[in-house]
Design a protein that fits this description.
The complex is a heterotetramer, with 2 copies of chain A (304 residues) and 2 copies of chain B (273 residues).
Chain A: E1 6-8, E2 11-13, E3 17-19, E4 41-43, E5 60-63, E6 66-69, H1 78-89, E7 96-100, H2 105-115, E8 121-127, H3 138-141, H4 144-157, E9 162-165, H5 173-182, E10 187-190, E11 194-197, E12 199-200, E13 205-206, E14 212-216, H6 221-234, E15 239-242, H7 248-257, E16 261-264, H8 267-270, H9 274-288
Parallel strand pairs in A: 3-4, 3-16, 4-7, 7-8, 8-9, 9-10, 10-15, 15-16
Antiparallel strand pairs in A: 1-2, 5-6, 6-14, 11-14, 12-13
Helix pairs in contact in A: 2-4, 4-5, 5-6, 6-7, 7-9
Chain B: E1 12-25, E2 28-34, H1 36-41, E3 47-50, E4 62-65, E5 68-70, E6 75-81, H2 85-91, E7 98-105, E8 117-123, H3 128-139, E9 143-150, H4 159-165, E10 168-173, E11 180-181, H5 184-194, E12 199-203, H6 206-218, E13 223-226, E14 242-246, E15 252-256, E16 263-265
Parallel strand pairs in B: 8-9, 8-12, 9-10, 10-11, 12-13
Antiparallel strand pairs in B: 1-2, 1-7, 2-6, 3-4, 3-7, 5-6, 13-16, 14-15
Helix pairs in contact in B: 5-6
Bound molecules: flavin-adenine dinucleotide (2 copies), flavin mononucleotide (2 copies) and FE2/S2 (inorganic) cluster (2 copies).
One FE2/S2 (inorganic) cluster (FES) binds next to loops of chain B.
Binding site for FMN (chains A, C): 21, 45-46, 99, 127, 165, 191, 217, 243-244
Active site (chains A, C): 130
Function (chains A, C): Catalyzes the conversion of dihydroorotate to orotate with NAD(+) as electron acceptor.
C-alpha cells in the first residue's frame, strides 16, 4: 500500500493535491464533475469582510501557456461564506481552507475571528499577495515587516492553522518567507500570481479592465518551482506549492523542490478533471518507481 | 476511469469522436461530434468548452454553442467562425480523431406553452445556437420568424436550413449582397410593427443585441439574449466571465455568463455604452 | 512612405527591431539566413573583461512556451570581441550594441573604457541583471543604489550611449529604473530573464547544471509588457522592450506599452527569420492601420 | 519573400512538404520530406531543427538527423523515436501537409580516400544518421562493417536496409531477441580483433559512445562520434549545446554540438564520468 497522506500545518490530508483559491469557487461547480472528497483539500475563493463585486469585465486574458486575471476578489463576504458555502462544502470529507484578504490589519483580524471555530474550516490561507486590489494585496506581501504583521494579527485571533500565501513579485522571496515563519505562520503557500499585462493592439487598450492582472498557469511554473526550492531551504515550516500544475509530473516537480503539498489552480480550467488526474498520476508514478510513501519525495531534489 | 461523485451529474468532461469537420462558408466550419450523453441532456443555448490543441497553447478552452442537438443519433453539431488561434486549430482536426469537450454548460433558451408567435434574431456566428432553438420552437408548434443578418452573403449562416425547417426567414446583409441591405434590426422593427410577437430570442454581436433589446423593450415584447464574455473555466468557478445585471432588489451586480447565462432575460442585463 | 525609423539613446535605427543579447551570438550564425543590415540593431552576446567558459551543460531547459538558460556568459572576453567580432560585424550597415557584464564596478568600468571609441560600436548595454553569475549579476540589478553605481561608472569611462538592462526579479522595477535614469543612463532595456528552475523527475536532479536559470520566451511576455508600461510612466529616457517577442503583434504590444524599440531574443530559436518577420509584419500592420510613422505607436496604449 | 544577404548561404529555413510519415517500428517513425535545396547540400551526420507544433508549445525546435539524403529526387528522410511531446506531435502530421525545418546544420562525418575498411557503430535512434553515411561510404568504395545495437528486436532500426546496401551487418540486442545478446561494443571488439579498421563512426547513447571511444583509442583506430546535447538555436548562436573538448593548446574548453559538431573526432571530446 502506497501512502499518499501528508500533514501540512497540522492539517491531515489524504493526498497532497489541493485546489487553489479563486480557481475552484466554493467547490459547487466542480462537484458536478467528481466527488470532492477525493481531493486532498479545497482552498476556497478569496474571502473578504464585506461582500465585494470585484473588477468590471474583461477580467481574463489568455497569454502563452497561461492567463491573466483581475477578478478583484469578487465574493459574498465572510458571513455569507460561513452561512452558505462552508456548510454545503462540509458535506464532503475534505479539509476546507479559507483564503482571506483584507484592506487593513483590522480587517484581516476580524475575518480570522469570525472564521475561528466555524465547523468544517480546517485552516486559513492568508492572501497577502493578491495584486488586484489596491489596498488589500500588493503592499502587505512585498514587505517582510508588513507580511509578518498580518500573520501575527490573524494568529492572535484564530486557533486555526495559518498558511501565509506569498506573492512572487518580490526581489527576495526568502526574506518574506522567514518573516512570516517568525511571525508564527504554520505553513506557506506559493506562488500567487505574477503581475502582468496584455494590450489588445486593435483597440490599443489593455485587455483587462484593471490594466494589470495576475499571471498564472504553466508559463509561471519555472518561477514557482524556483521559489518553492528557495523557500524550502530558508524555512522549516511546510510549503504548499502551486503555479502552473496541470499534470502529475508537474506536481512531483514541486514536491521534489520542497513542497509538502501542491495546489492546482488554472489547471482546473485546462481540464476540469486535472486534480484527479494529478492524484492518480502521482499514485501510478510512485508505484512504478516503487516508492512506498509520498513523503520520501518532499524536498528530495538532488543537488550535487 | 475517474470515479464520479454523489451529486446528480449533468456536466461531462469527455473525449468525443469527430464525425465531420467541414468548411461551410469561407470563415465558418461545421463540426459534428458523437456525444450521446451530452446530446441527451443539452438544450438550445447551451455551449461546450472545447480543447483546441493537444499542447498547453492555447491554454484555455473555447466556448462554442451547440448549434444542433440530435439526441436520437447521439450527435451534436458545432458551427464555428475562424477568428484566432484556437478556432484555427479546430479546422485541421480530422473526422475519426477525438476532441475533448466539457458540457453541456450554462443556461439555455426557454419557451412557454403560451407563446404562439416568436422571432429569433441572429447575427454572424450568433446564428449558430438559434438553429437548435428554432428546431425546438417549431417542434413545439410555434410560428417562428427567423431574422438573419450578416456582413455579406458569404458570411450568412444556415439561411437555407431555416427555410427547410419551416421558419419565416428574412435576411439582411450589411453590404446588400443578399436579402435586405442594412441591419437585421430593421427587419425586427418591421415584424414588430406588423405582428404581435410573444417572445424574441437574440444572439449576435453586442451592437445588434443592444438594438434588439431596445426595440423589444419599447414594444414590450419579452426578449432573451445570449451573451458572450471571455471565459476561463466555463463552469462558474473562476468569476472571469461576468456581466452586469440588475439584481432582484434593483442593485447592480454581476452574474456569470457561463453559469447564470449565456442566455439572460433582456430586462436584467445592463449594457455599458 | 511609412517611417519605421526611431532613435533610442541617440542611436538612430532604421527600424525598431533589434536582436537581444545572448540569443544572436555576434551575428555570424544568423548572417547565413539573411542580410543583417535589415535589422534595427544587434545586441551582441554578453561580454566580460576576461574570456569566460560559462557553466557546464546542460545549460538549457525547455518550459511551457519558454526556456530556461544558464549559459553563464560564455564569451571570448572584451579584447577578442574588439579584435575579431566587431570588425566582422561592422561590414553590415547595422548599429552594434555591446552587452557588457562585470564582477565589480572596476570591471564594468574597464570594459566600457576598452570599448569606448571602437569603430562600429554604437552603444553599450549594461547587463546588471544576469542571474547566472554569482558575482556579476543579481546583486547589481536588484538594488537601486548599486544599479546606479554601475551606470555612473560606465558613463564615466565611455562617451557611448549607455543602455541599462534591468532585471525583472525585483519588487519594484520603477525604483531601479529611476535610479539608473538619475545616474545618467541614456535608455533602459527590459526585461532580462526571470529566475526559474526545472527539475527532472526521473533523475530527481535540476535540469540545469547551475540549478537555477533565466526564464525567457513567450511565457514571460505579460510580465515584460507590464514592466515596460510601468517604467515608461516612471522615466523619461527611452525603453527597449523585450521578453517573448515572436511576432509583429507582440512587438506592437511592447511599443504601445511604451517601448521605443524592441528586441527579439528566444524568438530567434523559435524561428531564425523571426526578426525579419517582425519587421515586415509591423510594416504591413502600419499600412493596414494607415499609420504613417511608427513613432505614433510608442506609449500609445489608451488607459481610461 | 525574405531577401537573402550577401554571404554564401548554406542554411535554409523552409516550409517543406511531407511526402510520407509512417510508423516503422513500435516507437519509431520515418518521415520523408521534399526539400531539394537541403538535399542538394547536406552531408551525412548533419541534422535539421524541426518545428513540431503550429503553436508556441513546444517552443523549441527538435534536432533530428538526416537519415537519408536523396539529392536526385530532392528528398530527405528523418527517422525519429517517439520520446516526448515534440516527437509525439510529429507522428500525427499527415503527408501533403507542411513542416518547418532549418538546415542542413552542423558538421557531418568525413572520410578520406585512404580509408579502406571502416565500421559504423550505431545504437537506438543513433542508427538513423549512419544510414546516409553508409550509403556514401559504400558509394566511395569502402568495405563497411555495420554494427547495430538496440534494446530488443522491435527497437532495431534499418538492419535489413544495411544488408541490402551491402554492408557487413552484425547485430546485438540487450535482451538477445535478435542477433547477439549483449552490447554492440562487444561486436566492435571482435571486429577490431580480427580486422584492421581505418575508421570507426559512432552514434548512439552516451554509455555506448564512451565504450566505443575507449575501444578505438586502445586499438589506435581513428573514431568519429556524433554527440547529442539539448539545443536552443541549433545554429551556434545561443551557446546552449556545448560539450567539453580539449583545445589545440591542450586546455579544456567548450565546443558547440550544433555548430562544431554534432560529429567530433573522438580524441578531442572529454567525457565526464
Ligand atoms: C457562450 C459562448 C458561445 C459561443 N458560441 C460560439 C459559436 O457557436 N460559434 C462561434 O464561432 N463562436 C462562438 N463563440 C465565440 C468563440 O468562443 C470565440 O470566437 C473563440 O473563443 C475565439 O477563439 P480563438 O482562439 O479563435 O480566438 P482568439 O482571439 O485567439 O482568442 C483569444 C481569447 O479570447 C477569447 N475570445 C475571443 N473571442 C471571443 C468571443 N467572441 N467571446 C468570448 N471569448 C472570446 C478566447 O476564448 C480566448 O480566450 C461563443 C462565445 C461564448 C462566450
Ligand atoms: C544533433 C542531434 C541529432 C538527433 N537526431 C535524432 C534522430 O535522427 N532521431 C531521433 O529519434 N532523435 C534524434 N535526436 C534526439 C532528439 O532530438 C530528441 O529525442 C528530441 O528532441 C526529443 O524531443 P521530444 O519533444 O519528443 O522530447 P522531450 O523530452 O519532451 O523534449 C524536451 C526537451 O529536451 C530536449 N531533448 C530531449 N531528448 C534529447 C536528446 N536525446 N538530445 C537532445 N535534446 C533532447 C528536446 O529537444 C526538448 O528541448 C537528435 C539529437 C541531436 C542533438
Ligand atoms: C481566476 C483566478 C482567481 C484567483 N483568485 C485568487 C484568490 O481569490 N485568492 C488567492 O490567494 N489567490 C487567487 N488566485 C491565485 C491562485 O490561487 C494561484 O496562487 C495562482 O493562480 C498560481 O497557480 P496556477 O498557476 O495553478 O493557477 C487566483 C488565480 C486565478 C487564475
Ligand atoms: C540563451 C540566452 C542567453 C542570454 N544571454 C544574455 C546575455 O549574455 N546578456 C544579457 O543581457 N541578456 C542575455 N539574455 C537575455 C535576453 O537578452 C533577453 O533579455 C531575454 O531572453 C528576454 O527576451 P526573450 O524572451 O525574447 O528571450 C539571454 C537569453 C537567452 C535565452
Ligand atoms: S468562465 Fe469561469 S466563471 Fe464563467
Ligand atoms: S543550440 Fe544554440 S549554440 Fe548550439
Amino acid at each position: 500500500m502506497i501512502n499518499l497522506a501528508v500533514e501540512v500545518a497540522g492539517i491531515k490530508v489524504k493526498n497532497p493535491v489541493m485546489t487553489a483559491s479563486g480557481t475552484f469557487g466554493f467547490g459547487r461547480e466542480y462537484s458536478k464533475f467528481y466527488n470532492l472528497s477525493l481531493l486532498g483539500a479545497i482552498m476556497v475563493k478569496g474571502t473578504t469582510l464585506e461582500p465585494r463585486l470585484g473588477n468590471p469585465p474583461p477580467r481574463l486574458a489568455e497569454t502563452p501557456a497561461g492567463l491573466l486575471n483581475c477578478i478583484g476578489l469578487q465574493n459574498p463576504g465572510v458571513d455569507a461564506v460561513i452561512k452558505e458555502e462552508i456548510p454545503w462544502l462540509s458535506q464532503y470529507d475534505v479539509p476546507i481552507i479559507v483564503n482571506i484578504s483584507g484592506h487593513s490589519l483590522e480587517e484581516y483580524g476580524e475575518i480570522a475571528l469570525r472564521l475561528d471555530g466555524v465547523a468544517g474550516v480546517a485552516g486559513l490561507e492568508i492572501n497577502i499577495s493578491c495584486p488586484n486590489v489596491k489596498h488589500g494585496g500588493l503592499a502587505f506581501g512585498t514587505e517582510p515587516q508588513m507580511a509578518a504583521d498580518v500573520i501575527r494579527t490573524v494568529k492572535d485571533k484564530s486557533k486555526l492553522p495559518i498558511i501565509a500565501k506569498l506573492s512572487p513579485n518580490v526581489t527576495d522571496i526568502t526574506e518574506i518567507a522567514k518573516a512570516v515563519e517568525a511571525a508564527g505562520a504554520d505553513a506557506i503557500s506559493l506562488i500567487n500570481t505574477l503581475l502582468g499585462m496584455a494590450i489588445d493592439i486593435k483597440t490599443r487598450r489593455p485587455v483587462l479592465s484593471n490594466i494589470v492582472g495576475g499571471l498564472s498557469g504553466p508559463a509561471v511554473k519555472p518561477v514557482a518551482v524556483r521559489m518553492v526550492w528557495q523557500v524550502a531551504r530558508a524555512v522549516k515550516i511546510p510549503i504548499i506549492g502551486m503555479g502552473g500544475i496541470v499534470s502529475a509530473e508537474d506536481a512531483i516537480e514541486f514536491l521534489l523542490a520542497g513542497a509538502s503539498a501542491v495546489a492546482v489552480g488554472a489547471g482546473n480550467f485546462y481540464d476540469p478533471l486535472a486534480p484527479l488526474k494529478v492524484i492518480e498520476g502521482i499514485k501510478a508514478w510512485l508505484e512504478q518507481e516503487k516508492i512506498a510513501d509520498i513523503r520520501e519525495l518532499i524536498g528530495a531534489v538532488k543537488i550535487c | 476511469m475517474v470515479r464520479r461523485g454523489r451529486d446528480l451529474l449533468m456536466v461531462y468532461s469527455l473525449k468525443t469522436r469527430i464525425l465531420e469537420n467541414k468548411k461551410i462558408l469561407p470563415d465558418f466550419y461545421e463540426m459534428v461530434l458523437s456525444a450521446p450523453a451530452i446530446a441527451a441532456e443539452a438544450v438550445p443555448g447551451q455551449f461546450l468548452m472545447v480543447k483546441t490543441s493537444p499542447t498547453l497553447v492555447p491554454f484555455l478552452r473555447r466556448p462554442i454553442s451547440l448549434s444542433r442537438i440530435n439526441a436520437e443519433e447521439g450527435t451534436i453539431t458545432l458551427v464555428y467562425q475562424v477568428v484566432g488561434s484556437g478556432t484555427k486549430l479546430m479546422t485541421v482536426m480530422t473526422p475519426g480523431s477525438e476532441i475533448e469537450v466539457v458540457g453541456p454548460l450554462g443556461k439555455g433558451f426557454t419557451w412557454s406553452v403560451k407563446d404562439k408567435v416568436v422571432a429569433i434574431v441572429g447575427g454572424g456566428c450568433g446564428i449558430a445556437p438559434l438553429v437548435a432553438l428554432t428546431e425546438e420552437l417549431l417542434k413545439a408548434g410555434k410560428e417562428v420568424y427567423a431574422l438573419l443578418g450578416a456582413q455579406s452573403r458569404d458570411k450568412l449562416l444556415s439561411d437555407k436550413y431555416f427555410i427547410e425547417l419551416g421558419a419565416k426567414v428574412m435576411i439582411a446583409t450589411d453590404d446588400g449582397s443578399f436579402g435586405r441591405k442594412g441591419f437585421v434590426t430593421q427587419l425586427l422593427e418591421e415584424v414588430i410593427n406588423t405582428t404581435r410577437l410573444d417572445q424574441v430570442y437574440c444572439c449576435g454581436p453586442l451592437p445588434m443585441t443592444k438594438a434588439v433589446v431596445k426595440l423589444t423593450k419599447e414594444a414590450l415584447v419579452p426578449c432573451q439574449v445570449s451573451l458572450e464574455e471571455r471565459m476561463g473555466c466555463g463552469v462558474g468557478a473562476c468569476l472571469g466571465c461576468v456581466c452586469k445585471v440588475r439584481s432582484e432588489e434593483g442593485s447592480l451586480t454581476y452574474k456569470k455568463v457561463c453559469h447564470d447565462g449565456p442566455v439572460f432575460t433582456s430586462s436584467e442585463v445592463i449594457f455599458d455604452d
